[in-house]
Specification:
Oligomer: heterodimer
Shape of chain B: globular
Radius of gyration of chain B: 20 Å
Distance between the termini of chain A: 21 Å
Order of helices and strands of chain A: HHHHHHHHHHH
Helix content of chain B: 40-55%
Strand content of chain B: 5-15%
Number of strands of chain B: 6
Number of helices of chain B: 9
Shape of chain A: globular
Number of helices of chain A: 11
Largest sheet of chain B: 6 strands, mixed
Radius of gyration of chain A: 19 Å
Largest interface: A-B, 31 and 31 residues
Order of helices and strands of chain B: HEHEHHHEHEHEEHH
Strand order of the largest sheet of chain B: 2-3-4-1-5-6
Structural class of chain B: alpha/beta
Strand content of chain A: under 5%
Helix content of chain A: over 70%
Number of strands of chain A: 0
Chain lengths: 254, 228
């Protein structure tokens, strides 16, 4: 069986995605900032001029805190879902362990999103509350978000090999998530009875925890972190199981 | 497959006939043995290589391989046109199981063998098919495989490079490495392999001395009505 250097393969694949994506573009990485900036401008206009919301100070920053994680999540999930199909050439020719493919897709989206994260952190430093000790939580929280997407990516990429309509399902869920994640409204307006929907949704949990840290300068509640960690780990476990079960027939279906 | 076809199959409950790409194929390849697979298109040759490489799993039976296996099932599998030759070498070597340090260790040898020279830092899409094949072959033989699988790729290289490949494969053979290749060229097979397997409709028809099997195969192909 294949025995090799997993980290080297994954870093090469991530590097490949990154280079292929940006090599032929004159503005390179700056393009990845365009989407969140446009969304931020539009949503800020709508929710400060059309439906003014007075409870939130610094609305653009508040938005960006929700947009960046959601953006990463939706792009990573849909790229990972189609990753095996997109890389048929590699999957059918090289004996490299297949789970590397969706995971590399998630991680390269992470690299792609890091400029958006830098924009968010930069704005917090310049026009927001600035640095605080709770920033140390951020790598853990965002890391758990990545773990969650890896789980979903493994599961859906494997299913996408058999049922190619999977990507449309993912797209629809992503669209729904835009409204079910508190991106342009605060969690405090959500009625108590619906709050579990948000707390057990890792994307919403990442947004809430990031807002606690970056905007309110306080530690995220432990209960939220436990739920985030729990759901992410379950997703990874489930995703790996599904992938392992389905991978035997990839060759026939690709 | 689309959801539609799944549903259709479910609704119709059609008992589709099972198609076997390979059936009752058993053989063993010793260390230092070079074996060729011959057969018509669709006989199951590539499936056999895919099984040996671990890309597909057999429904029944076993495939056992010891040592590092390197496969060239297509010109530069995993190569990407927008990456440079150098980047593709690193990517390809990592897919074949090499670490960064190991890849750096063989890089000069790969470059020298491929004769790509100055083009190595150009995007791969500017390479000719022959150059891509040379680069792919150079990586595959330099990752020090115990078992090399080649699917009809030597056809693209020019005469002098083909000679070089033959020499390299023979050199690997001398150090106890094995080769399993698919080829439609009798000349290549006679040059490289002492043994040949003849596959027909997924079944192993003949296994033996390359010359004998080729003669049988050629006889059958030239006069298709005699035996069938």
């Amino acid at each position: 069986m294949w025995s090799g250097d997993y980290r080297f393969v994954i870093s090469n694949l991530v590097m490949k995605d990154f280079k292929v994506r940006y090599r032929n573009m004159s503005l390179g990485v700056l393009w990845s900032l365009l989407n969140p900036l446009v969304m931020m401008a539009v949503l800020t206009f709508v929710f400060t001029r059309i439906f003014p919301n007075r409870s939130i100070t610094n609305f653009p920053l508040f938005l960006l805190c929700g947009l960046v994680p959601w953006n990463f999540f939706s792009v990573a999930w849909s790229t990972a879902t189609t990753s095996l199909i997109e890389n048929t050439n590699m999957v059918k020719r090289v004996a490299v362990p297949r789970q590397i493919v969706p995971i590399a897709a998630v991680l390269s989206t992470g690299v792609h999103s890091s400029s958006q994260v830098a924009l968010l952190l930069g704005l917090v430093l310049i026009v927001g509350n600035g640095l605080n000790i709770y920033w140390l939580w951020l790598p853990l929280i965002w890391g758990l978000g990545v773990v969650f997407v890896c789980g979903l990516g493994l599961m859906f990429s494997a299913m996408d090999v058999y049922v190619r309509d999977m990507r449309y399902i993912v797209e629809s869920i992503n669209l729904a998530l835009f409204w079910f994640v508190p991106i342009f409204y605060p969690f405090t307006v959500v009625p108590e009875k619906y709050s579990p929907i948000y707390q057990f949704n890792p994307v919403a949990a990442v947004v809430l925890a990031s807002r606690n840290i970056l905007l309110d300068s306080k530690a995220p509640p432990n209960s939220l972190l436990y739920k985030l960690a729990f759901v992410s780990m379950v997703a990874l476990l489930l995703g790996s199981l599904v992938f392992r079960r389905l991978k035997h027939r990839f060759y026939d279906h690709l | 497959m689309l959801l539609r076809s799944h549903l259709k199959a479910l609704l119709q409950r059609s008992q589709r006939q099972r198609f076997y790409a390979l059936k009752d194929v058993s053989f063993r390849i010793a260390q230092g043995e070079n074996v060729a697979i011959v057969g018509a298109n669709g006989a199951g040759k590539s499936t056999l290589l895919g099984l040996a490489l671990g890309l597909a799993e057999p429904d029944n039976g076993r495939v056992e391989i010891s040592g590092r296996i390197a496969g060239l099932l297509e010109l530069g599998a995993g190569f990407h046109g927008d990456l440079t030759g150098r980047e593709n070498v690193f990517l390809n070597a990592s897919l074949l199981g090499f670490s960064k340090r190991e890849t750096e260790g063989i890089f000069d040898r790969v470059l020298e063998f491929s004769e790509i020279a100055d083009f190595i830092d150009e995007p791969l899409r500017t390479f000719s098919a022959g150059m891509i094949m040379r680069l792919g072959f150079s990586v595959a033989v330099n990752v020090d495989p115990d078992f090399l699988l080649v699917d009809e790729v030597l056809a693209v290289g020019d005469q002098s490079f083909q000679m070089k490949c033959f020499d390299k494969i023979n050199q690997l053979k001398q150090t106890g490495k094995s080769l399993l290749c698919v080829s439609h060229s009798s000349a290549v097979i006679r040059r490289l392999c002492e043994r040949a397997l003849w596959l027909d409709h997924g079944e192993l028809i003949a296994d033996g001395n390359a010359d004998d099997v080729l003669k049988m195969y050629e006889g059958r192909t030239l006069r298709p009505n005699v035996t069938s």
